[in-house]
Amino acid sequence: MSEINNFDNVPVFPRAGLLEILQEKSIRIRALFLCDIIATNLAFLISLSLATGTFPFAEGLILQMGLLTVIAIFLLPKLVVYRANLRFVSLGDLVSVGVATAAVVVAFGLTLAMTAAPMPPVRALAILLFVQTALLSAPRLAMRSPDLRSGLRTTLGRYGPSRVTEPVLLIGRGTACDLFLRSLRTQPSLAYRPVGIIDDMSDTTGTFIHGIPILGDYNDCSAVVANLANRKVKVDRIILTEPLTRQATIALEPLLEWARAEGIAVSQLPGLSALRPLPSEVGLGTINVSELLDRQEARVDYAAIQRLIHGRRVMVTGAGGSIGSELVRQIASLKPSELTLIENCELNSYQIDMDLARHFPYVLRHSYICCIRDKTRLKEIFRRHRPELVFNAAALKHVPIVECNPCEGVLTNAIGARNVADLAAETGSMAMIQISTDKAVNTSNVMGATKRVAEMYCQALDRKLPTRFMTVRFGNVLGSSGSLVPLFKKQIDEGGPLTVTDPRMTRFFMTIREAVELTLLASASGLQHTTLQGQIMVLDMGKPIRIMSLAERMIGLAGLVPGRDIEIKTVGIRPGEKLFEELFDAREMRSESPVEGILVATAEGRRLEDMQKAIASLEIAARRGDAAAVISQLSQIVPGYASAAIGDAKAVLPATVVPSSLAQPGPAFAANQAEVM
Predict the structure, then answer these.
(1) Which residue in 545, 482, 537 sits closest to 515, CA to CA?
(2) If you count DSSP H runs as helices and E runs as strands, how many of each does the chain have, helices first?
């Protein structure tokens, strides 16, 4: 079976010719080369002494040493890595020294045999091979860390079956990069191909660690990007091999902005002290969710997004959630003049605020604990900051929970969205962007119906007011909190089983980063093209994916075999769920938008006055805790919901009552948490 080397196709070759060695600016490299030439001649004298038993002042010795020197000068630069970082010399580097020595000895012997030069004893040449290898290796070993126990395993490690590898750029200290590169050689499951290293030390630029070039230090980001572009080197992922300090984060900001613009993922290696339940490590400590998609992630027009955000006052509700926090991070990277965060959960608010303080300390930010249901508190914040752009990502998203708590779902998803929209118009915002879900389409559950009400209200406002009210609809995002991927990962770590509701169930998926980038791009497009007024922008999510296939793929990515190592258990569909989701309602007309990756849904909609009255009645029923009245009114507002809802109205419990099956989550509740936010 063919094998793969994780370091194949490295774009910069560490070996060089004599001319390159002589032109090297590094004194260390030239000194090492001179040392090798001297060591070669010394090895020849020692080998002659050992072979003859006398000091080798024989006839023709000067001619022999001159010939050996010339051969070594031309062969050694071609076969030995002189630019290797001597702190991280591996057994592979020493093997190259042995190969170079053998080539020099063979060439020396053949040259003597074909000329009239005196021929030393054959046993002297055999001894020369070993002595020269030892003398050339000695200075390299002297500079190397004493721990050579993993050398043989590093060089002779198997690389596994041939497959596509992901080109990665490493950032971190040499020691951390050294450990990661060694792990690539010993773990066949890690399909990463390093193409370069950015070190924290400036004097290592131009050297190599295990054959991978150090392209620059943290302050050379612009030069590194230019270097990669000139050499047409593709990078799909940047890997931080260790946590970054605040100063390092600031220094690396140009590189991280470039990565965001190019759609390059940035990952953090787990610390050496991080313990995991499974003995086999899976990639970077978290599953690469993009590998779960059957398509390439979308690339977006970064310039358009930057024009939308740069220098503007931006507000994000639900700022600590999965979608909200990614929105906040991407918006912060685009340098808004002010960023206002609204979050109902104290822990989420703390975490996103600390994240911004670490990675985007230059962004003026204001963080508030606030529920979007509380219009009085919300109004105070809006009037204080008067945001130009408002992103409403706050929502109750879990279908079974909202199904059993319809009043709470209405108060957050419908009434809260109405509050945000009304205040955006009142304070003169340029645009309000409502984050919606495919569960609002032809819905059969309360969560989808409440999100559909929010869509319809924003459509009505957009057709009547100068402020733009844009709705962006998409399906499930991979890796969001409480969703499918974290659940399956937890179940894999615990040894299984993975719980799937129904083998036939399918869902649309995209990564969080992709969803947020397209949301920002859709927002920019909506401001530029007024013809989109009253229309819903729908992200193109490709084809739906079977949940069963996703479970099997995650088990495979963990290096395990479905059914043998990890069981997959079917537990049944939960309240409110459908076997498949749709991106367009039966009453909507689908069309293309001016932007690739974004589609448009056009519906007839309802008058603003009618929506205001309907939502006011819905609010009264929800605040009264009348679940049956809430569902009845939702069925009157949302087209198509009545057939699925009216028959179940009597079975829905008030918001204060939670069934025991939900109070203590079991497999039926844990399965398929593939929600949208």
Answers:
(1) 537
(2) 26, 21
Q: With the C-alpha atoms ordered 317, 321, 323, 325, is the resulting torsion angle positive or negative? A: positive
Token couple for 629: 């009245």
Per-residue confidence (pLDDT) for residue 326, from 0 to 100: 87
* Rounded CA separation 521/513 (Å): 12
Which pLDDT value is given to residue 144? 60
Backbone angles phi, psi at 163, to 5 degrees: -160, 170
Q: Tally the residues of the chain.
A: 677
DSSP 8-state code for residue 544: -
User: Where does residue 322 rank: exposed (0-12), middle (13-18), buried (19+ CB within 10 A)?
Assistant: buried
| Distance (Å, whole) CA 169 – CA 258 | 13
408-454: pLDDT as tens digits: 999 999 999 999 999 999 999 998 999 988 787 888 889 989 999 99
CB count in 10 Å sphere of residue 424:
28
To 10 degrees, what angle do helices 512-528 and 302-309 make?
70
pLDDT at 159: 37
H-helix segments, 360-483: 375-385, 399-404, 406-409, 417-426, 446-464
String of DSSP letters for 494-543: TT-PEEES-TT-EE-EEEHHHHHHHHHHHHHHHHH-GGGTTPEEEE---S
Phi, psi of 426 (to 5 degrees): -65, -35
Other Cβ atoms less than 10 A from the Cβ of 276: the count is: 11
User: CA separation (Å) from 566 to 120, 489, 493, 558, 674?
Assistant: 67, 12, 10, 10, 20
Those residues of the chain that have pLDDT short of 50 are 1-14, 146-163, 272-298, 643-677
- At residue 376, the pLDDT reads 94
| Cα–Cα distance measured from residue 562 to residue 566, given in angstroms and rounded to the nearest whole number | 5
> Which residue's structure tokens are 């709705």?
471
User: Residue ranges of the alpha helices (H) in 270-369?
Assistant: 302-309, 322-333, 346-359
Give the number of other Cβ atoms within 10 Å of residue 167's Cβ: 18
According to DSSP, the residues that pair with 470 across neighbouring strands are 433
DSSP state letters, 155-205: HH----B----EEEEEES-HHHHHHHHHHHHH-TT--EEEEEEEES-GGGT
Task: Kindly report, residue by residue over 261-311, the tens digit of the pLDDT.
Answer: 777 878 777 654 444 443 334 333 444 444 444 444 445 566 778 888 889
In the block, tokens 């029923």 appear at 621
Catalytic-role residue among 397, 439, 451, 578: 439
CA distance 509 to 657: 32
Backbone angles phi, psi at 541, to 5 degrees: -105, 10
Annotated active-site residue 464? The verdict is no
pTM over 0.85: no
What 3-state DSSP class applies to 267? strand
* 440 in Cβ contact with 476 (< 8 Å): no
Q: Exposed, middle or buried: residue 27 (CB in 10 Å: 0-12, 13-18, 19+)? A: exposed
Burial of 641 (0-12, 13-18, 19+ CB in 10 A): buried
- The predicted pLDDT at position 86 comes to 62
